[in-house]
Specification:
Length: 414
């Protein structure tokens, strides 16, 4: 009988990889970084990989016959294979490198309708979506004559599945939902969402920006048609991301941008286009960013990082428990039973911005505002929240400092 391998997560070893966590804010307070949902911090191994590329390996890729070009191309394409394995895609060519989640969603929104959408067809999104998974579909529907429909959000911040089932019909061509809400932390039942959509022949795009840093993602198990995520949320560089798409669907979609690399032949009158994945990767890509993404994946697969999901969940649970214990007027926005990543809240009638400013002076970095989910704020009748979001490097001790900071803010602002 095989023994289950015990998690080897070591938060001290993890924190040692992040020099930024050793610094003082305003020269006085130890930095506590609770803003990973906006952008995670970077381990030294990622910065070293990017620096090494620029110092020793830089050249443009795919076109050159010289040593540096071939070496850079090899490193770049190795990350494509590594990313395929990381999310369990079937083929290398199903991995499209983009500038981030927003770019990946826009790629689909700019091309999917030209292959699959007719006037009167329907697209479904949820009421908790980040603007990046809403505005592109509004633009696509305006252009194509499709109709955009919305799944409501419950009082507890959950995707209302019964309402979703009622929206699905033979006209539904695409469903686009987040795996994890960036504001609420809600983990949506994406596998069931996908299955129901497929019953009606619809395709499904999953916004994975907030899920890949916290959950194990298997795109073949989910059976999603598209999955988009960003490197900078998962300990990698900014300006690079991934769009996964099923090969047969990507082959049907026209190119997103024109330029170098995405062509097969060019005359003055007409061009023919390259195959996957290069059809969607026009121009010189963010080579250093892709190499940094590969280093971030390596970091997330290290032995002492195994168990990070459980650690983060414990920190999140502890934070919510302490908020409820110490503040009578706390209002947590989003109380779904399945959550990850962080907590959004309001402290009595104190303005979220004022709370955030005072926490900053105490060394605690949080995000305030509408978090690019204005329709969700309208749903809850608020203008914004304080959001504390966590990475694998955060601890319960940091939560205690955060709670003390909130107490100070409450005394100062009440």
């Amino acid at each position: 009988m095989l023994k289950t391998k015990k998690n080897t997560f070591d938060v001290d070893a993890v924190r040692a990889e992040f020099p930024v966590l050793d610094q003082k804010v305003y020269g006085k307070k130890q930095l506590i970084y609770f803003d990973s949902a906006a952008s995670s911090q970077k381990p030294k191994s990622v910065a070293d990989a990017v620096a090494h590329y620029y110092l020793y390996e830089h050249a443009n890729i795919h076109r050159g016959v010289h040593f540096l070009s071939q070496q850079a191309t090899d490193q770049y394409e190795k990350v494509r294979k590594k990313t395929r394995d990381f999310i369990n895609a079937a083929y290398d060519e199903e991995i499209i490198f983009t500038s981030g989640t927003t770019d990946g969603i826009n790629l689909v929104a700019a091309t999917f309708d030209r292959a699959y959408i007719q006037p009167g067809d329907e697209v479904i999104v949820s009421g908790m979506e980040h603007h990046s998974n809403l505005v592109p579909w509004q633009m696509m529907c305006e252009r194509s004559g499709a109709v955009l429909k919305f799944v409501p959000v419950s009082d507890s911040g959950e995707f209302v599945f019964d309402a979703y089932e009622k929206l699905l019909n033979s006209k539904t061509k695409l469903v686009a939902v987040s795996h994890v809400s960036n504001t609420l932390g809600t983990i949506n039942p994406v596998k069931n969402i996908i299955s129901k959509a497929h019953d009606f022949g619809a395709k499904v795009l999953i916004d994975g920006a907030q899920s890949v840093p916290h959950l194990k993602v298997d795109v073949r198990d989910l059976d999603c048609d598209f999955y988009a995520f960003s490197a900078h949320k998962m300990y990698g560089p900014t300006g690079v991301g991934v769009l996964y798409g099923k090969k047969e669907i990507l082959n049907e979609m026209p190119p997103y941008r024109g330029g170098g690399e995405m062509i097969k032949t060019v005359t003055l009158e007409k061009s023919t286009y390259n195959g996957l994945p290069h059809k969607f990767e026009a121009g010189t890509p963010n080579i250093a960013g892709v190499i940094g993404l590969g280093a971030a994946i390596d970091f997330m697969l290290r032995d002492y990082v195994k168990g990070a999901e459980e650690h983060e969940h414990e920190v999140l649970q502890y934070c919510e428990e302490q908020l409820r214990r110490h503040f009578n007027e706390i209002k947590i926005i989003g109380e779904a039973p399945e959550k990850t990543g962080g907590v959004s809240f309001l402290l009595g009638d104190l303005h979220h911005y004022d709370v955030g400013v005072l926490l900053d002076r105490l060394g605690v970095a949080v995000r305030t505002g509408h978090h690019c989910t204005e329709p969700l704020m309208t749903r809850f009748g608020i203008t914004g929240t304080v959001r504390a979001s966590f990475g694998m490097y955060n601890t319960k001790d940091e939560v205690d400092v955060f709670i003390d900071g909130l107490k100070h803010a409450e005394r100062m602002l009440s």
